[in-house]
Amino acid sequence: MPKTKYTTHPGMVDILPGEVEKWRALEAIIHEQAAIFNFEEIRTPIMEQTELIKRGIGQLTDIVTKEIFAFTKGDHNYVLRPELTAPVVRSYVQHHLAQRGGAQKLYYIGPMFRAERPQKGRQRQFHQFGLEILGTNDPIADVECITFMIRIYERIGIKNFALKLNSVGDPESRESYKHVLKDYLRPNLEQLSELSKTRFEKNPMRILDSKEPEDQEFIRNAPAIRDFLNEESSQHFDQVCKYLDMRGITYLIDPLLVRGMDYYTKTAFELTSPDLGSQDAFAGGGRYDLLVEEIGGQPTPAVGFAAGMERLLIACDELGIQLTKEKSIDLFVVCLGDNARDWCIKHLSEFRNRNISATMDYKGRSMKAQMKEANRQNAKFALIVGDNELESGKFVFRNMLESTEEKLSLEEIFTQFI
RNA sequence: GAGCCUGUAGCUCAGUCGGUUAGAGCGCUAGUUUGUGGCACUAGAGGCCGUGGGUUCGAUUCCCAUCAGGCUCCCCA
User: pTM value?
Assistant: First the structure.
């Protein structure tokens, strides 16, 4: 309801007090689990070179052709990052992270930007967390990605999701499959949707992803890429499945799962939820063995995923999952009269210096109003300070939960919090 | 980018078949309690009825446009 002159841009939202606490709780879980998996955090700039994003994600992808926020300033082209795989790879190449030895296991949390039409679970500034494992083609890396991804949801208490798995093959497998697929579709080309017709030459595999009703029959009977994988891709896929089985992770092999970015090879996976509505993808990812070289590094196999944090929080709300405890403070200092107020201003620090969370009323209000405020702030204790207390050195120390109170000296009050 | 729906107080929503001062609950402020919160009661503050235009003697109400949001398509996380 924008009645005010200045508002956020469409699809860009303020995260207000009350909501921020959920974000911090979610971030804490991600950091905690990443530490348990021995992954390291990486933070890259919000803006990258436009060329990096175009090369990384693919010139013809929807993200690049119509969803990036880009502008030019001086001699530089800037783009607000629409995802973080290409930037992380850029950083990996730029700083020679491979020289640190071993596979690099890098996770991130942060805002992304895509100029899409906003709807539930889809914003123009949104947040993802994700993981990239660079420098190994071992299927265990694929499975570690998937395990970490799922672990976050399970740790939060979300169990109602489906893991879809497929292989989009290596370039060799994919080329042969594209021919098979096109041969299969060609006789019926006229009956396909307009969108699919345009994809027939540019990116025929994306046709498998179509939800147009007229395409469904052809898609259902389409040859599956799995049957056209070469030896290496096929073995890799089997190993991924085997390791997932060993870990007891259930998955659904979906021959129609095709990812939206050009850089994917071999393993592709997606986590979907029935609690999300039409934007039902929690997270997605896969292997991208060609991207590092594409961006100018040594040939380096890699795998990763990205997960939408808004969608995760939507699911929490739908499922009634509380990420945060009710907040409270240790002490609310109620002061009566100017002398007491001066005393409070001076002594509040003595509580805070002892790590006791403490506050007071800022508006010089009545005792009743201050007590109400203490209650609203969920204070565990209230300290009542008036002229009597200042004279005697004994203060009324009220336990707000039990509605009991006693008269204590300042030193005695400090010991109550140990 | 396309289709449909919605837009009244901080929040959730009534309402006006077009007619003087626009309603509730919650929340907020204060009082009932000269130094004591949660409950109750009482009072108060808070609305260009999303914005702009049109029809009309008169529009929050009808029409058009626009903006924002929701649902779906598309796309993706």
Answer: 0.92
